[in-house]
Every structure is written in C-alpha cells, then in structure tokens.
C-alpha cells in the first residue's frame, strides 16, 4: 500500500494494491501496518461504520463534528467514483483554510484519512457511487455541523459537468468566516490533544 501526505496537515491518502483476475478483483482498502507507518500510530478504535449511495452530481458536505468530542475518519469508495475533499477548519492549524481532494473509485480503491477536527465533503462522479467510512466516534446529531462547499474563500473545485444536488441543510450551510465568527470552529491544539488521547487510549 502506497501513502502520501495531503495539503491539509495530518490528512493522508492511501493506494492499495489491487489483484485482478478472471473472476474480478481482490483488494484491501485498509491495512493496519502501512497506515500506522504513515500516521505514526495505529488507526483509531472503530466506533461506527457508515455507508452511503449517491447518484451522479450529489454533493454531501462539507460536514464536521464539534470538538470535543471530535471524530477521525477513514474513507474509501466501494463502488463508482467520487472526488473526496478534506478542508482544514481548525483555528490555529498551520494549514487553516486549505483543502485538498482525491478521486476515489472502485478501480484503484484509494482511501483517505481525516484527522480530528477537519471538514469532509465528496461529490459523486458516477451513479450508484458507494462510499464507506470508518469513524472513531458514534454519530450524534447535535454534534454535527455543516460548512458551505460554495464558500468563495475556499474555492473548492466542484464538478462543473453536471447539476449538483445537495440537501437543504448543506445548501444553506454557513461559510468558514461565519462559522469562525460564531465561535463554532474547532481549535487546532484541542484537536491534536483529542487525537493523541484517542490513540493513547
């Protein structure tokens, strides 16, 4: 499994080896040893797994979790194709306001690691795109917030070849500046400590 660091501090992309044959293929999108070597620690204890299916043009996010409690994620595409975005919204982070994206699909089976406190979004590039997540914490609705993917200051490169479909909540989501003004963004130092405690436990 190959790994590379992304433009957002603490975020990584992983590309496993795919074994094709006449029957189809076999692949391990998550492998503990190479992930631990890249991150400097083992993956978090998994508290919940999520599975979403989206048609082409669907954009989910950008979403983040209040910190504390904060949540780390490991995400890959089990079917179809999507552009996955990681956005640094941690106030005080050396990469605050920066973002990166990786195309995840069912051919290369790349995966992404999201550290505690960052925002996550993806845009489905094919019908029936299935995204699979491993999470360090369980979903609590009151802890989940949204950031606008249309924020002009972020200038995310969204697909332009198909109409985009978002939930009402995501369409009306505030900008990064609005969230910062309201004091709703996570603090970098607290995110780092929570992530350290997550792996120390």
From TrEMBL:
The record marks 139 as: Participates in a stacking interaction with the thymidine ring of dTDP-4-oxo-6-deoxyglucose. The active site is at residues 63, 133. Pfam families: dTDP_sugar_isom (PF00908). InterPro entries: RmlC-like, RmlC-like_jellyroll, RmlC_Cupin_sf. One of its GO terms (molecular function) is methyltransferase activity. Transmembrane segments: none annotated. GO terms for cellular component: cytosol. Keywords: Isomerase, Methyltransferase, Transferase. GO terms for biological process: methylation; polysaccharide biosynthetic process. CDD domains: cupin_RmlC. Belongs to the dTDP-4-dehydrorhamnose 3,5-epimerase family. This is SnogF. It comes from Streptomyces nogalater. The lineage of its organism: Bacteria, Bacillati, Actinomycetota, Actinomycetes, Kitasatosporales.
């Amino acid at each position: 499994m190959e790994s590379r660091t992304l433009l957002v501090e603490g975020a990584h992309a992983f590309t496993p080896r795919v074994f094709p044959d006449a029957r189809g293929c076999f692949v391990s999108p998550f492998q503990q040893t190479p992930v631990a070597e890249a991150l400097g620690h083992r993956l978090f204890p998994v508290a919940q797994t999520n599975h979403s299916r989206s048609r082409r043009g669907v954009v989910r996010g950008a979403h983040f979790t209040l910190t504390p409690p904060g949540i780390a994620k490991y995400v890959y595409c089990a079917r179809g194709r999507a552009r996955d975005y990681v956005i640094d919204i941690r106030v005080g982070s050396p990469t605050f306001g920066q973002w990166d994206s990786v195309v995840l699909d069912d051919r290369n089976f790349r995966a992404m690691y999201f550290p505690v406190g960052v925002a996550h979004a993806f845009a489905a590039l094919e019908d029936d795109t299935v995204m699979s997540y491993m999470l360090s914490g369980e979903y609590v609705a009151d802890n989940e917030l949204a950031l606008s993917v249309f924020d002009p200051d972020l200038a995310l490169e969204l697909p332009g070849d198909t109409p985009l479909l978002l939930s009402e909540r995501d369409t009306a989501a505030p900008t990064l500046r609005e969230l910062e003004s309201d004091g709703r963004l996570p603090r970098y130092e607290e995110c780092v400590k929570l992530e350290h405690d997550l792996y120390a436990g």
